[in-house]
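Name: BBS10 protein
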Amino acid sequence: FAELHTAVVGLPVAASRVLPGLVLRRDFATYCPAGGDLRAVLVTEPLRPALSAPGVEFLVDSEGQYQASLCWIARRTEAVVKHLQSNNIKLLLSSVKQEEVVIYYAKLHSLSVVECLSAEEMTLISEITGVSPYSPSSDNLRGEITETTVVTFCQPLLLGSKRCVHIGLPSMCAFEPHCLILCGPVDGVTEQYAAALQGAFTMLQQLFKTVEQ
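Structure predicted for BBS10 protein:
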């Protein structure tokens, strides 16, 4: 329930509504509008490649080596983003904050990015779509990326003064995700409505469970 409702303070209760899809309580790191169904991928690690493996010390002896290292990182990062583009991926949903160089190349190659998603949001999206997070490798940038899902829409959403991301996800089961937008003049009111609705849904779950048994 926590990931399927969003509280908005400062609006009348009558502004509450139900929206299809999911509302992610983050703004786009970069947004590139695109029409029709979009392919999306989940990631849980930075797309920017590291200069060395974990536990390995990387030494730079001169300014020239440092600049060359930065150029190498930029080229490899662009290669990763181009690999996503070649697989027709238009949306990157990331649980980690991506480096500025990733956002730069994403914008350059028309890839929308949402970052810093919670573990609960990532898990919910995986459960709804049936896909696992993609693990990018700068050493293997050929072939099809299979861990993708189709997003039926992807757009910014303004709730009060907060910018969010609104996406439509096809479900792998009978569950069709919708999100509750609960509005109220102050935090206390929206919290009361959320608690009351969660209690009502819990009661309905218990009722249907009893009927099924």
